């Protein structure tokens, strides 16, 4: 009789989410271009982080979640906007400023892809922005203790 409860605990622990599995779900969903799976993984990450003790691992995971939210924002914009291959300050207000502030190398990276429209408004490509953020998401796991 003792085998069933022990087996249940073992399988429940094996299925329990952890930082590595959730991070992998985020990265894998982005790689296969599955926005629905990506959104679900963000929800799991946001639920899971509340169970983590305060400390450097939690802080590193919080950074990964924030990066995932930034990816989701530009990804949803690209899917919903008729001209979603580029974003600007009118259609995605303060997004460029946010990315440039949170990711200091973003401005330099995106400069070569930026276009200026005939009104003088900079246009930033969503695909390259997403790619930049996905690389950051992949790399956040390597820096956590």
Note down, in words, how this protein is organized.
The chain has 145 residues and is mainly alpha-helical. The chain has one domain (19-140). It is 66% helix and 6% strand. The protein has 7 helices and 3 strands. The chain has helices spanning 3-15, 19-31, 35-49, 56-80, 95-102, 106-111, 126-140, and strands at 86-87, 115-116, 122-125. The chain has a 3-stranded antiparallel β-sheet. β2 and β3 form a beta hairpin. α2 packs antiparallel against α3 (35-49) and α4 runs antiparallel to α7. The chain is elongated, with a radius of gyration of 19 Å.
Question: What's the short story on this structure?
Answer:
With 145 residues, this protein is mostly helical.
| Structural class computed from helices and strand pairing | mainly alpha
What's the domain count? 1
> Percent range for helical residues?
55-70%
What is the 3D shape? elongated
SSE string, helix = H, strand = E? HHHHEHHEEH
**Strand residue percentage:** 5-15%
Taking strands numbered 1, 2, ... along the chain, how are they ordered across the largest sheet?
1-3-2
Whole-angstrom Rg: 19 Å
Note the total helix count: 7
Mean pLDDT: 89
Gap between N and C termini: 40 Å
Please report the total strand number as a whole number: 3
List segments where confidence is low: pLDDT < 50 over at least 5 consecutive residues: 6-14
The description of the largest β-sheet is: 3 strands, antiparallel
């Amino acid at each position: 009789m003792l085998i069933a409860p022990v087996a249940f605990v073992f399988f429940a622990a094996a299925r329990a989410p952890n930082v590595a599995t959730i991070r992998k779900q985020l990265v894998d969903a982005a790689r296969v271009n599955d926005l629905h799976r990506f959104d679900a993984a963000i929800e799991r990450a946001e639920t899971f982080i509340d169970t983590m003790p305060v400390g450097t691992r939690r802080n590193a995971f919080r950074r990964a979640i924030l990066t995932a939210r930034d990816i989701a924002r530009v990804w949803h914009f690209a899917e919903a906007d008729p001209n979603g291959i580029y974003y600007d300050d009118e259609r995605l207000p303060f997004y460029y400023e946010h990315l440039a502030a949170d990711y200091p190398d973003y401005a330099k990276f995106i400069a070569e892809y930026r276009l200026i429209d005939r009104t003088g408004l900079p246009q930033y490509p969503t695909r390259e922005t997403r790619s930049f953020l996905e690389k950051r998401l992949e790399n956040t796991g390597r820096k956590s203790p």
